[in-house]
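Marked as duplicate of an earlier ticket. Keeping the data here for the record.
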Amino acid sequence: MTEELVHPSAPEQIRILHIWNTTGSGSTISKFMDKTYKTHSWVITRKKPDHWNHTLFGETSNLGAKLFTLKALLMARNYDIIHVHAFDKIVPYLKLIYPHKKILLHYRGVDIRGIWDTKFKYWSKADKIFVSTEDLLAGAPSGTVHIPRAVDTDFFHPGGTFNPGTAFSIPYMADDLAIKYAEENDLILTFGGGLESPIKYTKFNDVLSQYEYYIDVKRSKGKILEALSKTGLESLACGLKVIKWNGEIVNGLPEKNLPERVVEKLYSIYLEVLS
């Protein structure tokens, strides 16, 4: 379990439980939400799938899948809003047990891309559906909201001295394209940080800051993903130039991905669903 931040505990606070923590998104949202709006948030996830130790705010559990699900269902009784990240199978159970609680389902990418119809029995039980990139809106039900990915700017920021003419990329079934873009831009390319060689999340800023470029290319089900990844955005926050899936080079973290902007949008939705 990671160190818990101190939360004010006034009963009028909105209490939010984040279940699962894909790429650390729940942790970033919770941390900045509580800092900005004095809400009371917590994150729970399983340790086994968290290869990169993404959970900087919240707790990781050694429980198996079934016991973790039971724990999440029991913990939910103490919260006003249940914000589920990717773990859509738990949503119908949450709604059955707590019909008056607000259940928000947040899809992150491969968990829903191109398969909306097959997951109707899960997302149809949610009070609100979010997606982290705009391309995921294709096929989504009416009312689905795009919530840009938030980058934890406390951890990801410019620093150190990079090596000119270097690039970093995480292998994700598109190594051929990463190599192509590195060659086109005369860059020395290093692969790392995948499942075979995970990098601890708290050290990732130091790793990225050694490079001038991040090549952000991924392939899923034979198709190139046309969206900036969380790592791509974190690289921008660190001051790297990022080469996108189409070869375009971008600089600077977009304002919409600042954590303060993301939690501002989410907080207004929290108030809306509770009203």
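See parent ticket for discussion. The chain is about 25% helix and 20% strand.
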